[in-house]
Write a structure and sequence with these properties.
The protein has 220 residues and is mostly helical. It has one domain: Alpha-Beta Barrel (TIM Barrel). It is 40% helix and 8% strand. The chain contains 8 helices and 6 strands; from the N terminus they run H-H-H-E-E-H-E-H-H-E-H-E-H-E. The chain binds zinc ion.
């Protein structure tokens, strides 16, 4: 009984110190709750001239219209070359990209890339940047490129224009605080974007990078 009590006490202490360590590792700035669409901000909303946006209706993720009026990539692989890139411009070139970090998994990838002298692009989620800024710093310090992958990983065409702007800007703020960089490349979660989303991202200074080969490692 006595032994069990001591063990319990040690467990509590360990749990406490782990949670304190995690909190210390987080960004210091004030951010919205993680993994939820963040609140809109009037100052950020004003950055986008909504009269110039194509008025594609808000979609239900996974449901595609028979006619793809608004160039929804997740439905038809429709591309607009002025804002979207899927392939390297030069034949036989290829690029590695990793989504959804920074997390402890990023460190394994980082070790493998660095051991082979390969540079990659990491499309990071704002909520993960808030939690793991030191891992993002390691990625940047190793010379890899950072892109944005939203704050909450919610499909963008299912959100209002104000919400999409908030997804972009909260992530931008977290990346800026963590590594003092402002990304120029954006990867929409699940490849879900249309002409309205393109217009918003273009006005906020982003190009969209998608992919042609998926390893489906996120599936298991
Ligand atoms: Zn993702």
């Amino acid at each position: 009984m006595y032994t069990i009590k001591i063990f319990s006490a040690i467990s509590v202490l360990l749990a406490l110190s782990t949670s304190i360590l995690n909190v210390e590792a987080q960004l210091k700035g004030k951010y919205p709750p993680v993994d939820k669409p963040p609140p809109a901000d009037a100052t950020w909303t004003a950055l986008v001239d909504q009269t110039k946006l194509i008025k594609a209706p808000i979609r239900t993720p996974g449901i595609c219209n028979p006619v793809d009026t608004y160039c929804v990539w997740s439905c038809t692989n429709c591309l607009r070359p002025e804002s979207d890139i899927q392939y390297c411009p030069d034949k036989n070139d290829w690029a590695l990209t990793y989504d959804d970090g920074p997390s402890v998994n990023s460190l394994t990838i980082l070790d493998a890339l660095n051991a082979r002298g390969i540079k990659a692009t990491f499309f990071v989620i704002g909520s993960r940047v808030f939690e793991n800024p030191d891992i993002l710093k390691k990625i940047v310090d190793s010379g890899h490129q950072i892109g944005s992958h939203t704050w909450s990983h919610t499909p963008l065409t299912s959100q209002t224009t104000e919400q999409i702007i908030a997804e972009v800007k909260w992530t931008e703020q977290a990346i800026k605080e963590a590594v003092n960089l402002t990304p120029k490349w954006f990867r929409p979660p699940q490849g879900d974007f249309d002409d309205r989303v393109r217009g918003i991202l273009t006005q906020l200074g982003y190009k969209i990078a998608i992919w042609d080969l998926d390893t489906f490692d996120w599936h298991s």
